[in-house]
C-alpha cells in the first residue's frame, strides 16, 4: 500500500500514466477519466485513457475525449502502455473483471495501481484506494482526490466540466438516491471554476438522434411489461430493435428508469439482448437491494438502487428467471 504523500511524491516528476474505467463507459466513467486526464496531462505526465470498449458518441464533446483509446481497437499498444506504466488509475469500477480482457495485461506490470470508486464490495487489487459507497459518483471522489493531493488546487474549466458530467449523470440530475450534499457543494465550486451548465446540458441531452427517440417511444409503448402484482416493470430490447432503430452504443442509457415512474413499480429492469449474452440493468426504490439480486443471480453488482448483471440463458428463460426471483422475493 502507498499513502497520499507517497503518491504526491511520485507525481512530482513526469510519469507514464494509464487511466482506465469500466466497459461501456457512462457519464461518470468518462467524466472521472477525463477529469483526471485534464488534471495530469498539463503537468507534463504522459497520460493515456484506455476504455475497455468504445464509449457512446454523445460524449464526443468532452474535453480531450479524442485522446481516449478504445482497447478493442488497439489491444497490443494498450497492453504495452500497461506493461510500461508507472501509475495506473482504475476509475468507477471495483473488480478487474469489469475491464476484461484488458485486465490480463495487469498481471505483467510493476505500476502502482490506484483505485477510485464508489461501488459496493471493491476487490483488493490496488496500492492506493479511495473508495466510498456514499459518494454520489466517482467524479465526486476525483474532486476529493485532487483536494487531498493538492489542497490549494483550483480546477480548470475542463476538469470542472468533466467532474460535473459524472455528478450530473450518476445522480440522475440531482434526483436519485445517490444525490448527496457533496454533489451540490462540489458543483458550486465547479461553477466558480468556469463550469457552464447550459453548455453541458446542450451537449449531453439536446444533441441526439431522431432514431433514438423513436426507439424509446416504441420500447415504452410495445416492449414494456408492468407486473404490479410483483412490483416490477421490465423493458425488453432485442436484436430486431437494434436493427430497426440503428441502435448505437449508449442508446439504451436511462431507459430502465421509466418503469419506476409508475407508483406500484418498485424494481425496474432493462433486458437487453447483446451479441453473446443478455445484459441486465436493475433500478429500485427505497431499501430494496438490486445489488444483492444481481450479485446472487446474474454475476453482477453495483449499487443498492442501481445495478447490472448478465444472463447466459435465452431471452424467454431470462424473463422467467427474473419473474421467479420476484415471486420469491415478495417485494410488494
Ligand atoms: P447500468 O445498469 O447503468 O449498466 O449499471 C448500473 C450500475 O451497476 C453501475 O454502477 C455499473 O457499474 C454496475 N454494473 C453494471 N453491470 C455490471 C456487471 O455486470 N457487474 C458489476 N459488478 N457491476 C455492474
Ligand atoms: Mn459511477
Detail the topology: elements first, then pairings:
Blueprint: H1 4-10, E1 16-21, H2 27-40, E2 46-51, E3 68-70, H3 75-84, E4 87-91, E5 112-117, E6 128-131, H4 138-149, H5 157-170, H6 181-192, H7 197-205, H8 210-222, E7 224-227, E8 232-237, H9 239-244, E9 267-273, E10 278-284, H10 290-297, E11 301-302, E12 306-311, H11 315-329
Parallel strand pairs: 1-2, 1-4, 2-3, 4-5, 5-6, 8-9
Antiparallel strand pairs: 7-8, 9-10, 10-12, 11-12
Helix pairs in contact: 2-5, 4-5, 5-6
Bound molecules: guanosine-5'-monophosphate (5GP) and manganese (II) ion.
Explain this structure.
This protein is an alpha/beta fold and 332 residues long. It has two domains: 4-205, Alpha-Beta Complex (inorganic pyrophosphatase (n-terminal core)); 210-329, Diaminopimelate Epimerase, Chain A, domain 1. It is 36% helix and 19% strand. It has helices spanning 4-10, 27-40, 75-84, 138-149, 157-170, 181-192, 197-205, 210-222, 239-244, 290-297, 315-329, and strands spanning 16-21, 46-51, 68-70, 87-91, 112-117, 128-131, 224-227, 232-237, 267-273, 278-284, 301-302, 306-311. Strands 3-2-1-4-5-6 form a six-stranded parallel beta sheet, with helices on both faces. It has a six-stranded mixed beta sheet with strand order 7-8-9-10-12-11. A hairpin with a 4-residue loop joins strand 9 and strand 10 (278-284). Helix 2 (27-40) packs antiparallel against helix 5, helix 4 packs antiparallel against helix 5 and helix 5 packs antiparallel against helix 6 (181-192). The radius of gyration is 20 Å and the shape is globular. The mean pLDDT is 97. Manganese (II) ion binds at residues 28, 92, 118, 137-138, 170.
Amino acid at each position: 500500500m502507498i499513502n497520499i504523500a507517497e503518491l504526491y511524491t511520485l507525481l512530482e516528476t513526469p510519469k507514464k500514466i494509464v487511466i482506465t474505467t469500466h466497459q461501456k463507459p457512462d457519464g461518470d466513467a468518462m467524466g472521472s477519466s477525463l477529469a483526471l486526464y485534464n488534471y495530469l496531462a498539463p503537468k507534463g505526465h504522459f497520460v493515456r485513457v484506455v476504455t475497455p470498449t468504445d464509449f457512446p458518441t454523445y460524449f464526443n464533446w468532452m474535453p480531450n475525449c479524442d485522446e481516449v483509446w478504445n482497447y478493442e481497437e488497439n489491444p497490443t499498444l494498450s497492453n504495452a502502455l500497461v506493461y510500461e506504466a508507472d501509475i495506473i488509475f482504475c476509475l468507477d469500477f471495483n473488480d478487474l473483471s469489469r475491464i476484461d480482457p484488458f485486465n490480463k495485461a495487469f498481471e505483467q506490470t510493476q505500476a502502482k495501481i490506484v483505485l477510485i470508486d464508489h461501488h459496493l464490495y471493491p476487490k483488493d487489487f490496488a496500492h492506493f484506494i479511495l473508495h466510498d459507497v456514499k459518494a454520489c459518483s466517482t467524479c465526486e471522489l476525483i474532486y476529493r482526490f485532487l483536494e487531498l493531493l493538492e489542497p490549494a488546487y483550483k480546477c480548470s474549466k475542463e476538469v470542472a466540466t468533466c467532474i460535473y458530467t459524472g455528478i450530473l449523470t450518476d445522480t440522475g440530475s440531482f434526483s436519485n438516491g445517490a444525490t448527496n450534499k457533496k454533489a451540490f457543494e462540489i458543483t458550486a465550486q465547479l461553477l466558480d471554476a468556469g463550469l457552464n451548465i447550459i453548455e453541458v446540458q446542450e451537449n449531453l441531452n439536446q444533441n441526439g438522434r431522431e432514431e433514438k427517440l423513436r426507439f424509446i417511444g416504441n420500447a415504452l409503448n410495445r416492449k414494456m411489461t408492468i407486473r404490479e402484482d410483483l412490483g416490477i416493470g421490465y423493458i425488453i430490447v432485442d436484436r430486431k430493435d437494434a436493427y430497426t432503430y440503428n441502435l448505437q452504443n449508449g442508446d439504451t442509457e436511462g431507459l430502465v428508469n421509466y418503469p419506476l415512474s409508475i407508483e406500484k413499480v418498485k424494481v425496474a429492469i432493462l433486458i437487453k439482448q447483446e451479441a453473446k449474452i443478455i445484459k441486465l440493468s436493475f433500478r429500485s426504490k427505497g431499501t430494496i437491494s438490486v445489488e444483492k439480486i444481481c450479485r446472487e443471480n446474474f454475476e453482477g453488482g453495483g449499487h443498492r438502487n442501481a445495478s447490472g448483471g448478465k444472463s447466459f440463458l435465452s431471452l424467454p428463460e431470462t424473463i422467467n428467471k427474473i419473474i421467479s426471483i420476484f415471486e420469491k422475493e415478495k417485494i410488494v
